[in-house]
């Protein structure tokens, strides 16, 4: 069998199961699907600030020209890392190219043979992929179920690592961090926390869920993503200075990739500065989330979430695609989440609320949801 024949068979198999994915572009409908929770990606003011920062720094390079260990480092990158350490209340911070790369770096490099990785069953694909690259034993525990986690901790060997997210990307619910931190301390386990969907949205200066709860010293490693609420690109790991130096020396996704461009570094810098000066965006987002919740409180198909990520269950790929089409025809860009992205039977509409959505748009959307 030739490669093309095999690929064609695999694609046809997906089409027959109605799980075939295709790229689509923005439709011009009202945005209720992007991760641009605070509107920073669409902010013209932030766009101008980034360009002004590059001019002020007199940066004339388009690219980093190499990895951070070769030609891709600069004093400016290190200055931005220091600023991020202040925001995240962390001893040290290391910028990486994306949240995916950051999770691969941490989970593949730090847990060793003889150690145990315990992952929430709904952890992001990048966490699971990083864990697969580790030599440690790995197990999943039931979502947010600390009793199940504790039972598995008791059967674990070596150093114990617990991989969780602060806000889960498909259900929008929070990790019970306070209770988790207490449990981890009891067994001397290390928490690795992905703050992708809380970066910018929670905490002073957008520092995430852990710092908003005063737990920054209880979490061994925190990962932050800038491509969602911060509206730009890149990610970072915040941890002890030793952990950062360890990643610089052992994390292959950091060592063997070209660094972020100067434009990306300036974008990260300016995005946090802009949010600091416009922190009211967090409150505006919360108001809109509460408005959506007030108008969907009787919807039995809505998953419980108080974050910007809201979920309306419509099991079955055909059902959820049909529901999304109806909502889109009404003028709202809401996307279906189909299996295998989520388990069969848990297909849903994933609705993202933003600070820039108007009350009228939110009320009209909830009215359309009641019709399907």
Strand elements, count? 12
In CATH, what is the class of the largest domain? Alpha Beta
Class of secondary structure makeup: alpha/beta
Q: Give the number of domains.
A: 2
Uncertain segments: none
Total helical segments: 14
Shape: globular
- How much β-strand is present in the residues? 5-15%
Q: From the alpha carbons, calculate the radius of gyration and give it in angstroms.
A: 21 Å
Distance between the termini: 45 Å
Write out the strand line-up for the largest beta sheet, numbering strands in chain order.
2-8-7-6-5-3-4
> Helicity, in percent?
40-55%
Describe the structure.
This protein starts with a helix and ends with a helix. The model has no long low-confidence stretch (mean pLDDT 96). It is globular, with a radius of gyration of 21 Å. It contains 14 helices and twelve strands. Helix 8 links the parallel strand 6 and strand 7 (221-225). The chain has a seven-stranded mixed beta sheet with strand order 2-8-7-6-5-3-4, with helices on both faces. It has two domains: 23-43 and 279-369, Aspartate Aminotransferase, domain 1 (Alpha-Beta Complex), CATH 3.90.1150.10; 59-277, Type I PLP-dependent aspartate aminotransferase-like (Major domain) (Aspartate Aminotransferase, domain 2, 3-Layer(aba) Sandwich). With 372 residues, the chain is of the alpha/beta class.
Key traits:
14 helices, Aspartate Aminotransferase, domain 2, 2 domains, three-stranded antiparallel beta sheet, 12 strands, Aspartate Aminotransferase, domain 1, alpha/beta, about 375 residues, globular, seven-stranded mixed beta sheet
């Amino acid at each position: 069998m030739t490669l093309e024949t095999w690929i064609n068979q695999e694609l046809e198999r997906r089409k027959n199961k109605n799980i075939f994915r295709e790229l689509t572009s923005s439709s011009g409908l009202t945005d209720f699907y992007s991760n641009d929770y605070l509107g920073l990606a669409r902010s013209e003011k932030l766009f101008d600030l980034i360009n002004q920062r590059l001019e002020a720094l007199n940066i004339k390079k388009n690219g980093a020209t190499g990895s951070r260990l070769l030609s891709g480092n600069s004093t400016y990158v290190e200055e931005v890392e220091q600023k991020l350490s202040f925001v995240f209340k962390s001893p040290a911070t290391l910028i990486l190219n994306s949240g995916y790369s950051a999770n691969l770096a941490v989970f593949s490099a730090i847990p060793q043979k003889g150690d145990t990785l315990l992952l929430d069953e709904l952890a992001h694909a990048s966490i699971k992929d990083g864990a697969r690259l580790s030599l440690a034993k790995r197990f999943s525990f039931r979502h947010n179920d600390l009793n199940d986690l504790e039972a598995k901790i008791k059967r674990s060997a070596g150093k114990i690592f617990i991989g969780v997210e602060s806000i889960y990307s498909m259900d929008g619910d929070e990790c019970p961090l306070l209770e988790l931190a207490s449990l981890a301390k009891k067994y001397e386990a290390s928490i690795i926390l992905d703050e992708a969907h809380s970066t910018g949205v929670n905490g002073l200066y957008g520092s995430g869920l852990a710092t908003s709860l005063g737990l920054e010293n209880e979490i061994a490693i925190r990962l932050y993503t800038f491509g969602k609420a911060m509206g730009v690109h890149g990610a970072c790991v915040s941890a002890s200075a030793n952990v950062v130096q360890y990643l610089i020396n052992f994390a292959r996704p950091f060592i063997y990739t070209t660094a972020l461009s100067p434009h990306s570094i300036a974008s990260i810098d300016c995005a946090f500065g802009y949010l600091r000066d416009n922190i009211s965006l967090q409150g505006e987002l919360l108001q809109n989330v509460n408005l959506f919740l007030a108008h969907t409180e009787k919807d039995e198909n809505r998953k419980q979430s108080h974050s910007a990520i809201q979920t309306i269950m419509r099991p079955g790929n055909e059902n959820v695609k049909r529901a999304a089409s109806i909502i889109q025809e009404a003028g709202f860009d809401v996307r279906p989440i189909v299996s295998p992205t989520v388990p069969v039977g848990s297909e849903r509409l994933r609705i993202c609320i933003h600070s820039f959505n108007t009350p009228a748009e939110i009320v009209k959307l909830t009215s359309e949801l009641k019709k399907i």
